[in-house]
Design goal:
heterodimer; A: 350 residues; nine-stranded mixed β-sheet; 9 strands; B: 429 residues; mainly alpha; 21 helices
């Protein structure tokens, strides 16, 4: 019965993906699924094209992080995606639920210790780091001393702030701004009093917050002069700065990085090829090359020295930017997201 | 002729070929019926597959809850005799260790953790860790060993929750979406105040929809009257103004409102130039430039604009069919224009008004993208929460339960509407 419902439900989601990916089973080509847009483009240039040039065949597929699709394939034992680019939340849930292969680092020929965050999960190889950061318009706003001044000091910086409509990172930043040491944040946030304390701190700026849901909104609100500070993912601000020539500056203080990962859905018939691709794409030089097309930081520490020095300061992994980095705890959020999100919504409605 | 002959022979009416007329008629009717069914069958099949079946699946998913029952079968059986007062006995822990070992092997422990986490926030990672460590427990006694892995297993509440979720069917999701839950002793109680969100969201969804419906009626009724009574030549030109936005994509119109409403945008400049901003500040209604974007106000305005044709067009088409003679007769009998309009004309438009309002109201209940883009955080409607339950939380039970609530609210409204106005009086055109 359960299998039936899972299959019925998942078929709705997965049907299209399976049809789209079906031709990939012919020949020995592998199907690599990623997020599309500029991000996929950077992977195409940095990894797929050289991999194809080396005599392999690659089919690209796109998704929006729906783990249900991967689960449906694995349960139906008809895996058509051989390598998937997943986010941390997905890999942690998917790994625990057995949707992904456990990575054999020796087989990859890679040194696990050299990859930032590789101990977070056994089912994936970290690929890039992106970061939730704040930014401001240098022509309108003076440089703040740190992130907390930017977000919480309304005397020095009157006006609105754009924050993501999500408890994630906002609660941690609020606690740190309230004087909690970074290493204590999750201990405090694990208690009821801690959560109340975080909301109390956010209360002080609540009337001045514009809440965004889509990543493009932060830079847009900043460009329109609607807010003095906006948060978003660093690549979004980088795009606004480099492509649209906006006079924005990123505040790297307390940047909250997250990973994207290469993972292999369990039971793929192309396991060998999948390993070969991940090893290929984890080469320090190729990972460094990817930064030419997108400003996300290579998770391979060997890549740092190979990145174009002109690009380095814009990456979350640049040594200067990592000085006061704050790593969000994916396990904490796996446990507490549902509860805190409900409380966050209730708080918003107050 | 033939018939006349047939009657003449044995008193039975016959068709031209000699078969009794009754049989011939039945045969012809059957053919017609098959033809009719054949014509309707594609649509019927389509509705069955795309509408009835998904709704049944949704209703089922809102109460279907197999994760604990299927993955902790021995524990569930052992817990049956537990009185719920103190910690369960050793057998329960032994069964639990066995289940956990199995769950670890089949990689289902995370599902159990995820399910229990809905009720006991924070237990997810503990279940996963326990499943991993359970493999090392080869022999009993298990009770202390399991509690040593994590003290959460030493709390009666944990076991009460497992016992409660041991059926394959659960009221949990439906209760949760009404801000209620089953307490430790099984009684239904309200969730703590800081987690009560969903009733507010339902009220908000109904409130916004009602307001939008009223706005479209107030704005649309006079326009429909104008359209129905102006000479055809002008009416067609006016109709273009109604239909052009109607044919434009919803997303485009929503984005247009974003640009118009944003701070410093056309709307707020207009308020500044015309002195409305000054007036509002004088009256102490606002402080500085009024905030329009990301507010309830802009949500209502944008939704009203999008829904206006849906209310207007049914009213218009009913008004078109009303003969001007009624009004003339009323006036000739001495009625004042306003009285005639209210007592003679308006009642005749009611089927159109009812149809338009019901259409707009039901469509408004499902709004998702417009509140998300134009509205603020407190203007999000149920659909937005359904989307996030599916896309980001991967919680289909919750999404289904919210869907059921929306469905039930719509059906209740439909029922009330039917009792008050009567669905047979509704006219869409």
């Amino acid at each position: 019965m359960k299998k039936l419902t899972v299959l019925l439900g998942a078929a709705l989601l997965a049907g299209t993906a399976m049809i789209a990916a079906a031709p990939a089973q012919a020949g020995d080509e592998i199907t690599i699924t990623s997020w599309g847009g500029a991000y996929s483009e950077s992977q195409r240039k940095a990894f797929y094209e050289p991999f194809i040039a080396a005599g392999n065949k690659v089919t690209e597929a796109e998704y929006s992080g729906e783990i249900a699709k991967v689960r449906a394939m694995v349960e139906a034992k008809s895996v058509t995606w051989d390598v998937v680019d997943v986010d941390t939340k997905t890999i942690l849930a998917g790994c625990a639920e057995g949707s992904f292969e456990t990575i054999d680092w020796a087989k990859l020929g890679l040194d696990r210790a050299k990859f930032i965050g590789s101990d977070v999960t056994d089912c994936a190889v970290p690929n890039i780091l992106y970061s939730t950061v704040a930014a401001y318009d240098t022509t309108k706003t003076a440089e703040p001393a740190n992130l907390f001044e930017a977000l919480f000091d309304q005397v020095k910086y009157p006006g609105k702030r754009a924050l993501q409509k999500n408890p994630f990172v906002n609660l941690e930043w609020a606690l740190m701004a309230d004087g909690v040491a970074p290493e204590e944040v999750y201990k405090v946030l694990g208690t009821n009093e801690g959560v109340e304390r975080a909301f109390k701190k956010l209360d002080t700026i609540k009337k001045d917050v514009v809440w965004w849901t889509a990543g493009a909104e932060g830079p847009q609100l900043l460009a329109d002069g609607q807010v003095v500070f906006a948060t978003s993912w660093n690549g979004r601000f980088y795009g606004a700065i480099k492509t649209d020539k906006k006079p924005f500056k990123i505040i790297w203080d307390r940047q909250a990085p997250d990973w994207d990962w290469w993972a292999i859905p369990k039971g793929t018939p192309k396991l060998e090829e999948a390993y070969r691709f991940i090893a290929f794409a984890s080469d320090p030089q190729r990972m460094a090359d990817q930064t030419k097309w997108i400003s996300y930081g290579p998770a391979n520490t060997d890549s740092a020295s190979k990145v174009d020095p002109a690009l380095l300061p814009d990456l979350p992994t640049a040594p200067d930017n990592l000085k006061t980095v704050f790593y969000p705890d994916p396990v904490f959020w796996g446990d507490k997201f549902d509860e805190l999100n409900e409380r966050f919504n209730a708080w918003l409605a107050q | 002729m033939a018939m006349a002959q047939a009657v003449a022979i044995d008193g039975v009416m016959r068709a031209a070929d000699g078969t009794p007329l009754k049989i011939a008629l039945a045969r012809a009717q059957r053919r017609e019926k098959i033809k009719a069914i054949g014509l309707v069958a594609p649509l019927f099949g389509f509705i069955l597959l795309s509408f009835v079946f998904p709704i049944l699946l949704m209703l089922y998913n809102a109460v279907y809850d197999p994760d604990v029952a299927e993955n902790l079968p021995a524990t569930v059986t052992a817990l049956r005799d537990w009185d719920g007062m103190d910690l369960p006995a050793e057998e329960v822990y032994a069964a639990f260790v066995g289940d956990m070992k199995e769950a670890q092997k089949s990689r289902q422990a995370a599902l159990v953790g995820k399910r229990l986490n809905y009720e006991l926030s924070g237990i997810r990672s503990k279940v996963i860790a326990t499943a991993r460590k359970a493999a090392t427990l080869d022999s009993g006694p298990y009770k202390d060993a399991v509690i040593a892995i994590d003290k959460v297993w030493g709390e009666p509440e944990t076991w009460a929750t497992i016992k409660r979720s041991s059926s394959v069917y659960t009221p949990f999701y439906m209760l949760a979406m009404l801000d209620m839950r089953q307490g430790a002793n099984g009684d239904i109680e309200q969730v703590p105040e800081e987690r009560r969100v969903y009733v507010d969201i339902l009220k908000r969804t109904l409130g916004i929809s009602l307001l939008v419906t009223l706005m479209t009626l107030v704005l649309g009724y006079p326009v429909a009257y104008l359209l129905a009574t102006t000479p055809q030549r002008f009416a067609s030109i006016l109709m273009i103004f109604v239909l052009l936005p109607f044919w434009t994509s919803l997303l485009v119109r929503t984005s247009a409102w974003m640009i118009l409403m944003q701070d410093g945008g056309v709307f707020s400049q207009f308020l500044g130039i015309t002195g409305i901003t000054w007036l509002l500040n004088m009256l102490a209604l606002t402080d500085g430039v009024p905030q329009l974007f990301k507010t309830r106000f802009s949500t209502i305005i944008a939704m009203t604009h999008i829904q206006l044709p849906f209310t207007l067009l049914p009213i218009y088409s009913v008004m078109k069919t009303i003969s001007p003679n009624y009004m003339r007769a009323a006036k000739s009998l001495g009625g004042k224009p306003f009285y005639c309009f209210v007592r003679v004309y308006m009642p005749q438009t009611m089927p159109g008004v009812a149809a338009g309002c019901l259409l707009t109201f039901i469509l408004s209940l499902g709004y998702y993208i417009t509140p998300a883009l134009v509205g603020g955080p407190t203007d999000q409607m149920i659909s937005g929460f359904i989307a996030s339950a599916i896309n980001t939380e991967n919680n289909w039970g919750k999404a289904s339960a919210l869907g059921v609530i929306l469905l039930v609210a719509t059906l209740i409204l439909y029922y009330v509407y039917n009792r008050l106005i009567g669905i047979d009086r509704m006219k869409l055109g």
